[in-house]
Every structure is written in C-alpha cells, then in structure tokens.
Amino acid sequence: MKNIGMTKDYSCEYFNPEIETMTREQIEALQLERLKATVKHCMNSPFYKKRFKEAGITPEDIKTLGDIRNIPFTTKQDLRDTYPFGLASVSIEKCTRLHSSSGTTGNPTVILHTDKDIDEWANQVARNLWMVGLRPTDVFQNSSGYGMFTGGLGFQNGAEKLGMLTVPAAAGNSLRQIKFIKDFGTTAIHAVPSYLTRLKEVMDQEGIDPRRDTKLKVFAIGAEPHSEEQRKRIEDMFGVKAYNSFGMSEMCGPGVGFECKEQNGLHFWEDYYIVEIVDPETLEPVPDGEIGELVLTSICREAMPLLRYRTRDLTRVLGRSCPCGRNHVRLDRMKGRSDDMMVLKGVNIFPIQIEKILMRFPELASNYLITLTTDEDNDNMTVEVELEDLFTDDFQRLLDLASRIKRALKDEILLTPHVKLVPKGSLPVSEGKAVRVIDKRKVYQ
Ligand code: ADP
Ligand code: ZN
Fold this sequence. Notes:
single chain; 445 residues; alpha/beta; Rossmann fold; GMP Synthetase, Chain A, domain 3; 2 domains; 9-stranded mixed beta sheet; 4-stranded antiparallel beta sheet; 12 helices; 21 strands; binds adenosine-5'-diphosphate; binds zinc ion
C-alpha cells in the first residue's frame, strides 16, 4: 500500500479533511450522486437486474435519497443463493481479491474486490487510525487472523497506507505478541476485545506492566459486540485508549465505522455508505434514537456493491454532528445481532446485557460463558464467569458474591440464571471472535 501519511501535515486532525468535515448538505449531495451511479452499475449484475425488474423500477427512478426506499433489500441469504460470484457487478477478470465472512452465523459468503475497492478500503482504515491520533511515527501491531478474515489484511493495508511501521503479528501466541510489543516499540494494537484481556493475563504472569514496560497508547477493538464496561476495563488494565471499530466483510471489512477521540459512538463514513435503521419486523425506518436493524448500501464499490443490505446488527442513531468536526452519522455501539438474541421463557436477552452487569464486579475477570439448557420443560441459563483472584478459602464470600451477581442479573434480564464462579484462565478462549453462548436446549426457539 502506498504510504500517503508521509506527505501529510501531522498536526491536522483529519486524514481526508475535505470529506471528513463536509456539511450534511454536502454529504447528502455526494451520496445521491454516488447512489445513482452505483444503482446503474449494479445493473451489470444479473441478480440486481432481475430484482429491479421484479420490483418494477429502473435506475432512473432514483431521483432523491429518499427513493432508496423503493429498492428491495439484499440479505445474507441472497449472497448464499448466488454463491460464489453471482452478485458481482464486474467481470472476474477485473477482481483482484476475494474475502469471505467468518461464518459466525451459518455458511460463509464471498465478497469480491477490485484494486480500486482494496484502495478505498485502505483509505477508510487509514482515516480511522489517523482520527484517533496515529501517525507514520507510530508502530502498529495487528493481532487479527490473516487470510479470509478481513481484520488481517484490512488493517494491514490501512495501517500501511497511513504510513506506520506495521507488525503483522497475526492471531494468538501471546508471548510472541508481548515480545514484539516490547522489542519493536509497538504503540497501537488492533485486537478483538476478548483477546486483549487474555493478553493482559499473560503480561501479568510474565511480570510485565504495560504502563511501565511498553509504549502502547491506542487500541482498535472490534469485530465482536462488547459493552462500554468491557472497554473501560480494557482501558484501565493497560492504561491505553480503546476505540470501537466496526467492520463487516460484505461492506469491505474493518473501516466502515470507528469512534473518534470523543468516544461518543461510531462515525459511519457516509461518503462510502448510506446508513438506514429500520424496524426488523415492518422494515420501515425508525426515528433517530430508536433501536433498529442497521441497513447499509455501499456507494463507492466496484466489484460487488450491495444495495440496502440487512446487516442484522441492532443499533441506533446518536447524532449527525460531533465536537470533532465530523458530521458523518454517529451510531451507538452494536447491541448484538438479531440472531444473537436468546429467547428464554419468553424473554429476549442479548449476551451484551449480561456482560455489562458482570463487568461491574471488580472481583470478576473478563471472560464469561453463557450456557442454555432444558431440564424437563424448563429453559435454564448458566453464567460461568472467571474470578479475578481466587479466594476459595473464604467460601462464604464466594456465596455472597454469587448471590449479588444473580440479583444484579435478574434486575437486568428479569430471569435468575445459575451463576458459577470459576478460576481465572479456566474458560475457553477462541483465537478470533469470542464464543459467548452455547445453546444446548432441545428445541431452538
Ligand atoms: P461474520 O459475519 O462471519 O461474523 P464478519 O467478519 O464480516 O463475519 O463480521 C461482521 C459482523 O461482526 C458485524 O455484522 C457485527 O455483527 C460484528 N461486529 C463487527 N465489528 C463490531 C463491533 N465493533 N461491535 C459489535 N459487533 C461488531
Ligand atoms: Zn467525532
């Protein structure tokens, strides 16, 4: 990736000043222009050509941004049905890379990229990393798996474009990660939040104090839902600012949304995407501030733009201006995906609600696992959570702690789960996204 950062003024807060500081009117004018062009371009794909015909619309019918609502939604199922290349809007000859989603919820899906797509993607990631204060003088270590998962090459290309010295450490092997952090003077790391707590455990075992022994100052954390409480914990553990990073293979990968220094929500880049929040049942738009499903239209992609893609992620609009000077929409941290929702005894529960409560107890470490079972005809939830320190000699204290956790969980989720306190390091840690829920119930609801 071409190092663009070297030629920039390091004191400027913006990587793409003109785009980042656009007024709402300018953003919307650019979006309309790009939406019209994208819709025309999509007619090269037999899939969209047919979809438009069925819906009785033509690209010329898109005259205002509001007209986007006449375009049918695209779903993950559409990607699966047309697997692998059926949604391409260019010939395969023009494509230079494919990625595939990690398949957290079902079969993988394939996303194609042209050279231009890869370059625009890197621009988004570089913009984000610059926004939180990183410059070519920084050393960036990426602890994502490389390969099909977009967190690897996505951050790699973006960090190179910004011009940092990049350390493609890839996932796992914490001792090696720590050695790199120390030897290379790493100042920034990209990681899934669940991995950072594991890394800190290994630092503790090795007698390494990140404040004293490293130059770390910025974390980009994302790829999985996490609570504000989890972020604060990570920041306190390391003495490092942790910024939420939202990515999704179908849009490109990491880079789609990122927090600025204000940490007041994710700026979604509206020169690249049109953001809609809809009611997942009626599919009608919900007012700003209300939670709904995030729907994204990529308006700056060549190989495989997606129109009104239903992400399944639940969030809400927080605002369309920010003290940082960027007017690109700010979205709340993801509550989870609609398919992460557990339905227990008729109550809807998201894993993140449980995490939020657990993280409030200083006696608890950060790793937890929720197991759902059926006994006779009753659904049960067991929350296993690691203890920060073992105080097994004080049985009464453990019992008290468990019942305080139960009560706090009941206040949040309206059900009383079983709570099991386990020693630190005893729950499984995955190399990529954390697995928080195991559903062993006889009947899926
Ligand atoms: P998969 O769909 O197989 O998990 P992706 O790597 O494309 O593959 O994952 C994208 C999804 O990851 C998003 O739709 C969202 O559910 C989740 N995700 C990514 N970043 C975040 C984040 N910062 N907060 C919450 N969820 C996130
Ligand atoms: Zn901002």
